[in-house]
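debug: dumping io for the single-chain case to check the tokenizer round-trip. Nothing else runs in this session.
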Amino acid sequence: MLCGQRQHSRGVVFDYHVDMAHIEDNVLIPYETGSFQVHDKSYHHGNLREELIIEATRVLRDHGIDSITLRRLSRSLGVSKAAPYRHFKNKAALLAAVAAEGFRKMSISFKETSNDENPQIALSIIMERYISFATGNPRLYRLMFSRKLFNSPVSEELLQAATGAYTGIKEILSGMNSSGKTAVSVNTAWALVHGISLLINDNLLTVDDQGNTAHALSVDGENPADLQISEQISSAIDVFIKGFST
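debug: decoded output
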């Protein structure tokens, strides 16, 4: 057993009381009795878990998923290397929480239109906002649908957030669908907006320098036609709604 104080190079003093078995990679892992304190006069975290998610989301947006490590995040936030592990057991757990927050943010934009009196208009707006979110946050969106995150066991937080994001679409389609096959309709609507989002994010529908023109892939050897990106999206959604309503 080891007791004492340790002065960090940044002026952070650690009072530690740890079992030797809990020292890993020169990192002091909290003793089970909880006798581990961090005194940092330069930075105070009211909610470290939330700060880790916010910082990881920023790093993901600016640098990509490979740049995210718990050690780098702890250094960026001015906390001990062991502190993030009190909230996330590993990087995968942190990424699941980041993805869950992404679904919650997407869901918020849906709820603003889900009460529209005209269900077709409400559905159209939700689908457009889905694409807007996906194309405005390409790296986060890719993470949200990463197969690795949904392999067993799936984070309960992520599962609830992902399911909740589609509640608005499900409710609207349920009211419009007389056949009772709401699940099929939801999957079809999702396939449409998901596909368009990925086409844009993967530059298969490329936007020009002004950000408002997309070039469709050539068909039967014809030259690609210039299309307003908003018209491309609206046209696809209109085709779905008209087909669904007949």
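debug: round-trip ok. The beta strands are 2-7, 13-18, 23-24, 27-28, 36-39, 206-207, 213-215, 226-228.
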